[in-house]
Design goal:
The protein has 269 residues and is an alpha+beta fold. It has nine helices and 16 strands.
């Protein structure tokens, strides 16, 4: 049996874990090595040789293994053909490229399998930290093979929250006093993983995140006892024509209603 045949026979989670590990190790070989950088989105977003190399490895492993799946990647030109697929891969070769290029370790490879608009398998691999988060729709969320869960700190305790100061400005003054802002985490996916493993109670996500930023982390957070929702409390749908999202909130299920109440003034913002 060829290596390609062996990969093709893996279940979806094992397949994307193997792909994420290989892509992450390639990205790690560029880390702190001053890779070539280009700018996209009218000069607002950097992309590096590491992003492209990791993307090529993901595509080389995943697409031949599941030729009937669609494909959506931050570093591949979007093709509306993906909309005709019930199931697709949603990948971000390096989530947190700015941090990666600054030499920070808080970046990861994000890979999800999405079926009928919701993730069914997800992996976040942070090679610089030697951390691997995984989940399936019917299993636990795991970090390096061990189950994780959202914070169980009492609701009256301090709320560790990753969010911009502007997003907290409309909070009730008394509630704002209970919020401890976390240090900036350049990878959105990793920030959601920090909610999933209990290091944060929640995070507020600015407008214009994309499917590839959040699909895998969404599932990992859900299986850890939390949720990623829009400001009306609705879960996200993936593989739409428009892959961007409005403002979001990710939190433990116990804290989410209060966070959404505090954010209600932003629903039409």
């Amino acid at each position: 049996m060829s290596d390609r045949d062996a990969v093709g026979q893996l279940n979806d989670l094992d397949l994307i874990v193997e792909a994420a590990r290989q892509a992450g190790d390639i990205a790690l070989s560029f880390f702190r090595q001053s890779p070539e950088v280009w700018w996209k989105n009218e000069g607002r977003s950097p992309v590096s040789a590491a992003d492209f190399a990791a993307n090529e490895k993901l595509a080389a492993i995943l697409r031949p293994a599941r030729p009937d799946y669609g494909w959506l990647s931050e570093e591949t030109d979007d093709d509306a053909e993906r909309l005709s697929h019930e199931t697709l891969f949603v990948v971000d070769p390096i989530d947190g490229t700015r941090g990666f290029l600054s030499g920070l370790e808080l970046w990861c490879v994000s890979v999800a399998v999405v079926t009928n608009g919701r993730p069914t398998a997800g992996v976040l691999y942070a090679p610089a930290l030697e951390e691997l988060f995984v989940a399936t729709a019917d299993g636990p969320a795991l970090k390096n093979g061990k189950p994780i869960a959202v914070s169980d700190r009492p609701e009256h305790d301090i709320h560790r929250l990753a969010a911009g100061e502007d997003m907290l400005s409309g909070f009730d003054p008394d509630f704002r006093k209970t919020v401890e802002r976390a240090k900036h985490v350049p990878s959105l996916a990793y920030r959601l993983a920090m909610v999933a493993d209990g290091r944060l109670e929640g995070t507020i996500v600015k407008r214009n995140s994309h499917d590839w930023d959040v699909a895998a982390a969404d599932l990992i957070l859900e299986r850890a006892g939390g949720a990623l929702v829009d400001l009306f409390g609705h879960p996200l749908n993936y593989n739409r024509a428009d892959v961007s999202h409005g403002e979001l909130c990710g939190a433990s299920s116990a804290r989410l209603p209060e966070f959404l109440r505090q954010l209600s003034h932003r629903r039409n913002g």
